[in-house]
Records
---
Amino acid sequence: MTLALIVALVGVAGCAKREEGTRTLQFWTIGREGEAVEKLLPAFEREHPGLHVEVQQLPLTAAHQKLLTAYAGNSSPDITQLGNTWIPEMVALDALEPLDARVAASSVIKRDDYFPAIWSTNVVDGALYGVPWYVDTRLLFYRKDLLAKAGYDHPPRDWQEWKAMMAKLAQPQGKAYGVLLPTNEFEQLLSLALQQDDPLLRDGGRYGNFRSPGFKKALAFYVSLFKDQQAPMMTNVGIGNPWAAFGQGFYAFYLSGPWNIGEFRKRLPPEQQADWGTTPLPGPNGPGASNAGGSSLVIYRSSKHKDDAWALIEYLSRPDIQARFYEILGDMPPRRSSWEAPALKNDDKATAFREQLERVRPTPPVAEWERIVTEMQLVAAQAAHGDLTIDQAAAEIDRRADRLLEKRRWMLDHGHKGSP
């Protein structure tokens, strides 16, 4: 018998052995989470003999298309990580398994333990389709030392105070700025808009509501930061290295997310580590809301291993496992009880995120949202450049949103959930 034939027979035997004794659960992750979660799975598999979890990591830039292609080709995984804003799209396709009954029967997942707005991002038309896995929101990173030199012993508490601080810090004009707001990122304006009472869409998500007084107030504040030279007119490509620029005092405030705690700790020198902090986002009249982002875990309707997939969701939802996940990767947990872990509770940079998560708001649960918010930012950048007035920009965003929502309106009017 040749060596090649022996190797082939051993391979076949190995495959046969796995098929006879092991159930395989297909789990797709997006970006860095795949590497981190693989470190947690050996313990899960020991708790569930005969069950093997096969992880496939999707690059962030291709994940959305890969998930849609898999659904169209009837090759979806059993369980996947899904960005909260993608859930309505998958629900519209009828791709996801409802989870209300499983949550109601669970001794692990306690709905009241989750930040309410984060939980609500998984609810579409009154039904639950995902369980939050980790959270993401935006707040202010700020230079405590620069504020102290300007005469402040505390971070900003509302828009008026924030503007006053930035006016002092943006000196000399054109060489130093109050805040970095990359003009090709929508998250900053979105956070300001979510602080308003007016919803961003109206009539059940059929039309844009960007001509509302609330959105125009947020847009006017945003544009004023560029007009008054308190924010540099540049994209994130133009800024190059935002961490070095922050350390050099090119700007004093940075509206960003939790991953930058690790980045600033890694990239700023030891002598500057006491010079910066984090603080909840100021609102028009006091502490303000921010976006309810992050990823959730969902089960596909087509899965043949739904009970096993649910067991994995319960395992990854345990507070001790979420605390371990934070230690490995830095992704913040969606459960209040998970924040009792020392790595989070005793971290002064994480405390502000814990506070902000009590004041976050979900974005409209429509499949078209990511395209709408991209168009919103394109028009807002024109307003920041002075090419459009606030009223003109708001009307243009509404026109673009209404065009994107045209198919959704037709489907809703004909008794469907929404547009895929």
---
Amino acid sequence: MGTTGVWKIERGSESDRSVLRLSGRIQGEHLAELVSFLRAESNGQPLVLDLAGVKLVDHQVVLFLADRQSAGVKLRNCPAYIREWITRL
């Protein structure tokens, strides 16, 4: 599990995929740490980012999430405002 004070990552898994549960406020300055977690979890299984606990993100994070989604990462429980921003890109 990773934590930076304003956001947190919890690892999980399902039968056929790795799940990272994100919560809190995520800003562009946190992306390097998030990328490290994604690399550590990329073991050939599909990856899910569960965003149910995410309260706030900045523009850089929206761009990052859109890019990850385009690369095949599933965004689960994505807050409506994030989904809206992604569709506007």
